[in-house]
Amino acid sequence: MKKAFPLPSGRAALVPSVLAADFSCLKDSLAPVRGLADWLQVDVMDGHFVPNLSFGPDIAAAVAAASGLPVDAHLMVAEPGRFIDAFAAAGAGLITVHAEARGAGACVARIKKMGLKAGLALRPKTPLKKIIPFLGVLDLVLIMTVEPGFGGQAFMPGLLPKIGAARALITRSGRAVWLQVDGGVNAATAELAARAGADSLVIGSALFKARSPAAFLRALRKKV
Ligand code: DX5
Hints:
This protein is α/β, with parallel strands linked by helices and about 220 residues long. The protein is built from eight helices and eight strands. Helices cover about 30% and strands about 20% of the residues. It is globular, with a radius of gyration of 16 Å. It binds D-xylitol-5-phosphate.
C-alpha cells in the first residue's frame, strides 16, 4: 500500500537508508525510526551501474509494510526502465533514477505518468546541467556525495558547491523540488548539506550504527 509523501514544512526531511539497517531483523532495525523519519530510502543496486548488488522490490514491499513509512526507491541500476513497474507495485511512492542510466528521461516521464514522485540522481562527477531539461517535471533532485554503490563512505565536501548550485537552479525554476543529499551524511555533514540548500537527507551508517538511532534522529531534527 503506497503511503503519500509527507511535505515537511520549514525543515529537512530525514530519510534513513535501509542499506545500513540490520538485514537479519529489518522490522526491529527500522522500529526506532518510526515516528521520527519522514520516509525510508531503499538503495537498489544491480552490480552493473554500481559494483554492489543490494535488494529488489520484495524487500521494498517488506520495508514499507514493516515500517508503515513512505518508501523512496533509489535505482542505482543501468536500465531503470526494467524495474520501475516492480518498485511501483511494491509500494514505492517516489522513484529516483540516475541521469547516467539508460533512458533516464523516459523513466522520469513514466514515473510521473504513474502518479508517483520522480527523482533524478547525479553521481559526484556528473555535471549539474544534466538536471536542467527535467526541472519542469521533477519532484526531487539527488546529489550523491559519495560514489554510489556502498554505504559507510566519507562525505565528499567538495560537492557542497554543487548542492548550492542545485538549490539556486531549483529556486529559479519556481517549483517545489526536494534537494536530496545521499552519502556520508552524519550529524556534522547534515548541517553542512542543509546549509548549502539540501532539504532531504539520506542517512545510513551514521544513523544505524548510532547507539540510539532514535536519539540520533531527535538530535538531528533540532539542527536541520
Ligand atoms: C551509496 C548509498 C549510500 C547510502 C547511505 O550508493 O546510496 O549513500 O544510501 O549510506 P551512508 O549514510 O552510510 O553513506
